[in-house]
Design brief:
By secondary structure, this protein is mostly helical. It has two domains: 239 residues, no CATH class; 208 residues, no CATH class. Helix content is 77%, strand content 1%. It contains 19 helices and two strands. The chain has a two-stranded antiparallel sheet. Helix 2 packs parallel to helix 6, helix 3 packs parallel to helix 5 and helix 7 packs antiparallel against helix 8. The longest helix is centred in the N-terminal third of the chain and has 44 residues. It is a multi-pass membrane protein. It is found in: Cell membrane. Keywords: Cell membrane, Hydrogen ion transport, Ion channel, Ion transport, Membrane, Transmembrane, Transmembrane helix, Transport. This is OTOP3 protein.
Amino acid sequence: MSDKKVSKPCHRCKNRSASVPTDATKIHYEEFWLYRHCSSVQQRDRQAQKAGQLFSGLLAMNVVFLGSAFISSMIFNNVAITLADVWILLSILKVLCLFWIIYYLLGTSRQPHAVLYRDSHAGAIWIRGSVLLFGSCSILLNVFQIGYNTILVHCKSKVEILYPSIGILFICTQAYFLWHHCKDCIQVQHNFTRCGLMVTIATNLLLWLLAVTNDTLHMEIESQMREHKIARLEEAPGNETTTLCTCPNMTICKVFQKGYILLYPFSTEYCLVCSSVLYVMWKNVGRRISHHHIPNNKRKFKLQGVVFGPLLGTIAVIIGACVFMMYQIQATSLVPSHQVIVIYYSYYIVLLPLMSVVAVIGTIIHALEKKELDTLKNPTRSLDVVLLMAAALGQIGMSYFSIVALVATDPRDPLNSLSLSYSVLLIFQNITQNVFVIDGLHRRHVAAAAEAKHAGHSGQNTVAAEMPGEEETTLNINQEHSQTPPAKEEDTKEEQNREAYSQRRMSMLELGQEIRKASLSYIHTYSHLSWKRRALREISFFLVLCNIILWVMPTFGAHPIFENGMERSFYGYSTWFAIVNFGLPLGVFYHMHSVGGLLEVYVTA
């Protein structure tokens, strides 16, 4: 009887569910075995993913600490730990990374169902282009270093030739790997792939740290060249200067030295860019992307809807290039003047407020736009935000140190007041630009394909409506040719000349039509965009060009914040050099990374 009592309600519930329409909100999915099984599997996968990320992160942290201890020991005690010892450690790490990258290319990525998903947000074209550009410059840097050490092989160790050779292989392999596989969401060998990626990230960070701490190399080369010039001018007849390592061919050595100085900043940028791309790959290991995360239309960069931004930005770039050349000419002279430093600071004092005001206007326009925030999980965008905020700390930190030194000494001095204004404006510009870029990156992209298509159709209709004369002319010419009577044999040449003339006339008319169509289409597209989108595109393009010139000037050696002498005398040479040596590379990376973020804002506007 008890079994019947238990079976009857179940039977009634079964009949009731068959007769009554099911309501999804009233169904308790937790009671189903399949749901519980899938939930437990997903929970175990998440736990395994967290454990793998934790283990690989701890591995990278230990590698970074070991390399940092070696580099710091070399700085503080270069007798016990030499630069050659650091090079040997980094060469071992490079070889390990090479073996893993080759295994990934030939083994892991070729397994069945290895790459089921690809992150469309990762590996933007400007990121991969930066990897190729900076990688090529880093290869040339190593070539110059090998050539210079080969000439001085009689006083150089074999490690100084072997280390850049391994570096060339590492750069080439890593650049190929990132170009083809930066979008991969690998689904096999999760832990091994995470560990390989983290060791590669740690190696790039150590290479960046070594490049930052050894940034004095090109300064030493320049000081040696200046001392050589002074010694040659002051050298008395019959006196000979002897050095321990003399270059047999000074012309070739100068070429290698100049090439090394010119290409040295690109190696630091290459390490930081590769580390950011590898971090996104590490976050995408085992990631499964739903169809909501895959965009239907790929956004392309088109120079449409901008007029004033490129114009003002080009003016800023030209003026900045002139100021930079003046500064470099004066800085390379034996007695640099303070006038060029004043011109340098004046250029920044004019440009930085303009960039800040423009960024504030762009942020206000973002607030006025009725766009929803994009809350989808996106490791690339999260990393972009973190890198922008972290890289800005370099310039902001240097500026605050400079402000304290200038206010505490003599802020009324003309040069000090310019430097103080420069530091304050630089802080404000970094903050406002970060707010504008980060706000633009988090805005949901409104699919403008239908709008552009509508604009194109209306533009074609406008063009067709405004140019009936040319079409009628072309039709009349064709009709005249079809209605001409057959020519006689003696009039063949005249007929051919007329045909050639008519063909040239038709080609000129077609060319004029194409030019007029293109111009009218651009004008119509510009007028079709809303004023908010036009303003955002103008602002983004202007800031892109400004950040490019602000990236070029410190990258190639314009460092007045170190060469004016005030902060150096306040903090001491070693302390201020450490501050500048840490902040300047981050500032250079900040401007380069801001260009990518601003281009993203321009495309999505």
